Amino acid sequence: MVRPLTTLSQQVIIAHRKGVHMGDTRLKRFRILIVDDEERILRFLTSKLKASGYEVVTASNGREALEQIASQQPELVVLDLLLPKMHGFDVLRELRSFSSVPVIILSALGADAERIKGLRLGADDYVPKPFNPDELLARIQAVRRRMGAEEGSKTSESVTFGSVNIDFGRRSITIDGREQYLTRIEWLLLSELARNSGRLMLYEELLGRIWGQEYRGDIQILRTWISRLRRKLNATSGGRGLIRTVPKAGYLIDQSPS
Fold first, then answer.
1. Which residues contact 243 (CB under 8 A, 6 or more apart)?
2. Residue ranges of the domains in the chain?
């Protein structure tokens, strides 16, 4: 006898992995999910984004957000944190268990602690409220550029550093023979460092290549993501010490690939 699913998140994960679409067939336009419990913000952003050529779907609470992600398969999520039924951080944590869709947090919780927590949980960017809608549009465009750069950088080659194998074609990494899951930003960071092994990559260079030129001074976001990446590399002894920090300058992989 098959036991029924007991939680919403289990249903969402299975629906997403099976590619279940409960809504209409996907359109070709870039689809954005806006998650916010303030109706006026949903209306305003829906109008603003549609005028910019985006397709928009909305959700007003955390549970509905996960359902919309599974059914509508958005290319990007704009996520508030103070949501009914499920806090935005919990939504992000659940989401990152089954999807690497880009997430921009848009929240009145603008303190550094909340911003850093959001990035550590897997958000791609963090915009505090009150916000400039044109800045939000610019951040969305920056995420799209990164996605395009990621698609354009795919090759069939792979490199190995000791027991760490990086397969650019499959966008996968194995450490001591075991595959390690990376989010999109973690993968882009590791790819840049691996492709430039032996060369110091300055903070500004990495920020410009991965987040865009407008982020070249945001060293904290880079440090946060390098820390996330290192934790995954350090999960086994084979990945420890792969990325070296050059204080006040940048990062590098100073091993030669085999």
1. 193, 226, 229, 230, 233, 251, 252, 253
2. 8-150, 153-252
As to burial, measured by CB atoms within 10 angstroms (0-12 exposed, 13-18 middle, 19+ buried), residue 129 is middle
What's 214's DSSP letter? G
Helix (H, G, I), strand (E, B) or coil at 128: strand
Tell me how far apart the alpha carbons of residues 11 and 97 are, in angstroms, rounded to a whole number: 13
The structure tokens listed for 32 are 């954005």
Buried b (16+ CB within 10 A) or exposed e, 39-55: eebbeebbebbeeeebb
- Global pTM reads 0.68
Q: What is the rounded CA–CA span in Å between residue 46 and residue 31? A: 11
- Mean pLDDT over 170-183 rounds to 85
Residue range 71-111, pLDDT digits in tens = 999 999 999 999 999 999 999 999 988 888 899 999 888 77
Q: What is the number of alpha carbons within 13 Å of residue 121 lying toward its C-beta?
A: 22
- Which CATH architecture is the domain 153-252 placed in? Orthogonal Bundle (1.10)
> CB atoms < 10 A from the CB of 154, how many?
11
The CATH T-level fold of domain 8-150 is Rossmann fold (3.40.50)
pLDDT in tens, 18-51: 444 434 434 458 999 999 999 999 999 999 999 9
State the DSSP H helix or E strand holding residue 234, giving kind and residue range, or none if neither: none
